Amino acid sequence: MELERESIEAIKEAEGSIGVLWSGGKDSTVLLWLCRKAFNGEVPFPVVYVEAGRQLHEVLEFRDRLAGEWKLDLKVVKGSGGCCGEALPGAVGGLGLDAVLAGSRDGEECALTTGSGDVGGVRVSYPLRRWSELDVWRYVKAEGVPVPELYLSKGGRRCVKVGCAACGVQVESDAATVDGIIKELESKTDSEEDIIVQRLKSLGYM
C-alpha cells in the first residue's frame, strides 16, 4: 500500500528525541500501528497521552489495555483547560522532546500547530497527512487495527472523532461494524472530515 509505505518512511525520517501523540482515536492508533511496523513490532519512543477535560472511560480503558498489550512507553501528561487539544501545547512543551509524530490528517494539522509548524515549541510531523477518513477505515479493516467501540453505532449514533468529552464528535449512524462504517462512508456525499474540521473550528483551534 503506497500510503502505508509513505507513512513508514516519514516515521523513520523523524530525527532527534521523538515522541508520538496518542488520543486513543483511530488515526493516532493507526499511527502507532505503523510505528510498530517500522520498528519490528515495537514503538521505540515515548507515547504521549494528554489527559485534560472530562475523560471518557471507554477511551481510558482502551488506552490502558493497548498500552499493556503493545508494551508502550506511555506518558500520561495531566493538562490544564477544558479540552485535551487546548492543553496539548503546554503538556508537550515540558517533555524535552525535539519532535512529535501526530495522527492528524490533511486539513486538521493547524488544529495542533496553529500555522506555526510546531506545538509547544516542538516540531510536529504528520505521517498520515495524505490519508482520507475512508483510507483509515479501510486500513483498520485490512490490518485488524483495534479501535474504541465508541466508533460503532449504539442507539443510532456513533463517534467520528474520539478524544475528551469536549472535542469528541458524534453523527447519526447505523454503522455498528467497521464494514458498516466503510459502506456508509462510500455512500456519503458529505465528508466526515468536514464535520470534524468544523468541530475543531468551533473549539477555536483553526
Give me some keywords for this one.
single chain; 206 residues; alpha/beta; Rossmann fold; 6-stranded mixed beta sheet; two-stranded antiparallel ribbon; 8 helices; 41% helix; 16% strand; disordered C terminus
What fraction strand?
Answer: 15-25%
Number of domains: 1
CATH superfamily: HUPs
Mean pLDDT: 83
**CATH top level assignment:** Alpha Beta
- Name the CATH architecture: 3-Layer(aba) Sandwich
Largest sheet: 6 strands, mixed
Please give the share of residues in helix: 40-55%
Which fold name is given in CATH as the topology? Rossmann fold
Strand tally, please?
A: 8
For the terminal residues, how far apart are their CA atoms?
31 Å
- Please state the CA-atom Rg, rounded to the nearest Å: 16 Å
Summed up, the helix count is: 8
How would you describe what is shown here?
The chain has about 210 residues and is of the alpha/beta class. It has a single domain (about 1-205), classed as Rossmann fold, CATH 3.40.50.620. It is built from eight helices and eight strands, in the order αβαβαβαβαββαββαα. Residues about 195-205 have low confidence and may be disordered. Strands 3-2-1-4-6-5 form a six-stranded mixed β-sheet. The protein has a two-stranded antiparallel sheet with strand order 7-8. Strand 5 (about 120) and strand 6 form a beta hairpin. Helix 1 (about 1-15) packs across helix 2 (about 25-40) and helix 6 (about 135-145) packs antiparallel against helix 7. The radius of gyration is 16 Å and the shape is globular.
